[in-house]
Amino acid sequence: MDLLALEPPGWGGNLLRGLLNSVIIAVGAFGFGLAIGIGGAYGKLYGGPILRDLLEVYTTIVRAVPELVLILILYFAGTDLINRVLEALGYARIDINGLVAGIWVLAVVQGAYSTEVLRGAILSIPQGQIEAARAYGMAPMLMMRRITLPAMLPFAIPGLANLWLIATKDTALLAIVGFNELTQETRTASGQTKAYFTFFLAAGVLYLLLTLVSNQIIARVERWSRRGMPSVSGSTR
Amino acid sequence: MNVASAASPSAGQTAAEAIHVENLHKKFGELHVLKGVSLSARDGDVVAIIGGSGSGKSTLLRCINCLENPTSGIIRVNAEEIRLKADSHGNTVPADRRQIERIRSKLGMVFQNFNLWSHMTLIENVIEVPIHVLGVPRAEAITTAEALLARVGLAEKRDVYPAFMSGGQQQRGAIARALAIQPRVMLFDEPTSALDPELVGEVLKVIADLAREGRTMILVTHEMKFAREVATHVVFLRNGIVEEEGPPDQLFGAPKTEALKQFIRTVG
Questions:
Q1: Which of A217, B100, B183, B239 is within CB 3.0–4.6 Å of B94 for a Cys-Cys bond?
Q2: Which of B216, B229, B210 minimizes the C-alpha distance to B15?
Q3: B100: chain A residues, CB-CB within 8 Å
Q4: Which of B183, B208, B240 is a domain's end point?
Q5: What is the mean pLDDT of residues B186-195?
Q6: Same structural domain for residues B19 and B102?
Q7: What's the pTM?
């Protein structure tokens, strides 16, 4: 157990820092992915034919390519592309922060999935409620904020909850590009000490705890989002 | 031609025209639903639109606030003409989004299926448009909303979500929501058609009260007896044209056209 001590020579501190990085990336990727998803869902539902086609290409490709491959492509090709553009414009190359790149890469992946989750949820809203908002003179942005998004939430929560849990675990894929998230820290620690079992078990427990805490929060959000709906089991909450 | 502006006897010549519809056409693809309908409502008028299924009566009502975009024709609300334009697909759409939003916010629409917002409590439904569209201060909106809920007999349902209310309660709540915007005209789209028979009465009573206090209303309905009682002017639509119109006693008492006679016989 000394190996897991928070202070060096223990590696516990490193593992917790890795967990924190993982959580930051997951939060960032899920948040930006959600923003992309809202834009994507609206574009697919209400956009012109060209926008709809472009979004179809985006969601199809991202969902067709294995995430690991996408991460490699987006991480290396993406940073290279940005630097080439910068050089072409006469700026110096920049060293792209691993955290920012990780968030960006996973957000692109998450965005494709949340586009579909949110599109389905918006389609599930009883149309009359949207129509009532139009009939009372709500402008499109106001309608989105006050009616469409809150009304679709109960239909979106199960799908979004899945996406969040996937996001927490997809952070592990960033180990491959050398980012110091939980899995990478675990590899480093176990490689140095040869205590593979101890460290991977510890990492597994940390991932499990993250999921359990997430489930608690998701359950609360779901209860809140369904406040206007009779419970499925028949009793009134 | 339908000279609807020959208006109802109860509305004096001095009352301003609240709704004016002229030569309205509406096509859904090949289907020609409205074939040149004209309609007029002055302040204080209660215009009942009756007709069989598929006659175009709901479509006519929904064209007034452009929930359906008319294919051609003139619509004036408060003497302001809704500007229409052709979009890239050749459909007619409102030319100015802000104009149509402003006009809509003066028309209190009540739907067949209530359409209360399910994620809001009853009072939140009633204050939503006043606060967020009309810019009424929250405290003032709540005071008004509470008075309206009391008026439609739902004061104790203030904090209840629509899904936990009966159809009749939801529809009375929807009427309170419409009243909260202090509408120039109330539009009712078959407000009792989705209700269980025993709940129809409570909703009709609320509507009748509104008619008595001189509110301008356009009412699409299947309730003939009710239309005869509250309307100042009745329009009978058939196959997308105004087949016959006039004061209720004349239309129901002495229908001129064979179609209306038959309609009254079957609907009773």
A1: B100
A2: B216
A3: 137
A4: B183
A5: 94
A6: yes
A7: 0.86
